[in-house]
């Protein structure tokens, strides 16, 4: 039986770009080492935060190769593989080289808004095709459809290689229902930095984080304290970052965290259209909060 290894602080890794629009591989290498030195537990690559829809197939292959070689097994790699064309996702799972990849993160189909039975059949096909463990990803704010607790639990019970769900529905009751009724091999991972602390207190095993790109050491400390049951100290850290969580997403993701990383000298503040950099007013607010937290830019 497959077991979930994606626990603790996972990073929804950005894709750094240069001013000419090309991928900045040197910045990516710096960022990988910064994450690993910061104590992250796993990396989530080529997800939403990586601006994956704007990457060409050749760029995705190059990134995958670079990441596998650079990480070199130091932490697990969870790679995005999803879409709203089930046959295309299945084909990718069956024909791609998954060497060095420890699991796939597969998002609910976006735009075409399938029923709950459609979601079940979609992920059934993915589970049957995948050569590596599958982590479901429920993010109705982006996809236009919410996968209910009932459907999630049905999938978890029917497929041993579906090992977790990244839950970003914002519905704490739904998430608690999954945690309470899930099979032993299946875990819930927070998909939202701002609710990571309360979700861990309910039984979640970690987070796939955006803010961790910039502040891995600080955020991993909160996650570890919460997982160890040291809730009082973890809650203090959570409250310190509460306003920052909001600001990082006010102009869209990953605009906020890329602005922060740019100010820290880790990458250029470049995104690919249709995304654009965060507003100067937002960046000023982010900088002010980081100054108050004694986090150097």
Commentary on this structure:
Helix content is 46%, strand content 12%. The chain has 297 residues and is α/β, with parallel strands linked by helices. The model has no long low-confidence stretch (mean pLDDT 95). Helix 6 (149-158) runs parallel beside helix 7 (172-181) and helix 8 runs parallel beside helix 9 (216-227). The protein has a single domain (8-228), classed as Aldolase class I (TIM Barrel). It has an eight-stranded parallel beta sheet. The longest helix has 19 residues, at 231-249. It is built from twelve helices and eight strands.
Topology:
Layout: E1 8-12, H1 25-37, E2 42-45, H2 57-71, E3 77-80, H3 86-95, E4 103-107, H4 116-129, E5 134-138, H5 140-143, H6 149-158, E6 162-167, H7 172-181, E7 187-190, H8 196-202, E8 206-209, H9 216-227, H10 231-249, H11 255-263, H12 280-292
Parallel strand pairs: 1-2, 1-8, 2-3, 3-4, 4-5, 5-6, 6-7
Helix pairs in contact: 1-2, 3-4, 4-6, 6-7, 8-9, 9-10, 10-12
